[in-house]
Amino acid sequence: MNVPKITVGLQQKIGQPNFGSLGASCVVEVQLDQFESEDGEAIEQRVRQAFARCRRSIDDELRTLSPATAKGPGCDNGETPPSPVSRPRGHRPATDKQIRAIQKIAGKQGIMLASELQARFHVTSPDQLSISQASALIDALKETGAAV
Fold first, then answer.
1. pTM of the model
2. Separation of alpha carbons 126 and 147, rounded Å
3. Are 46 and 6 in contact (CB under 8 A)?
4. Cβ-count burial of 55 within 10 angstroms (0-12 exposed, 13-18 middle, 19+ buried)?
5. 117-127 CB burial, b ≥16 within 10 A, e <16
6. Helices and strands, counts by H and E, the chain
7. Rounded to an integer, what is the distance from CA 47 to the centroid of its chain?
8. 71 contacts: CB under 8 Å, gap ≥ 6
9. Would you tell me how many other CB atoms lie within 10 Å of the CB of residue 91?
10. Averaged pLDDT in 10-residue chunks for the chain of 148 residues
């Protein structure tokens, strides 16, 4: 018996100083049972789940890659590239609850969180945000979801 499969893949790169970049990719293969393969909505749901799983994996991987482990051009001399983030003094970091909310909302909406963070705040992870930045991002993500 031929078992139907779905293959989902994502990749993402984030630019770094001195023309370097951080990158991650994910490929997930999902086997469908006989009933799922005949149900378009079930197939769409499995595809969404696979993409969400890949998004989380990529975000986690990019979060674990530090500038010290990702040496791009201009860092061949063994020096650590400059940090992409410098939070101003006196700014409180985002709370764990805010970070979880950001990840959950972005995942539900299919937003590439690392790209969104890079574009808006020049950071690669929500734990690099200040409490006020995290609050603003949550509001913006909720508005985006309401518009969809």
1. 0.44
2. 23
3. yes
4. buried
5. bbeebebbbbe
6. 4, 2
7. 17
8. 20, 81
9. 12
10. 80 78 84 81 85 83 60 42 46 88 88 85 87 90 70
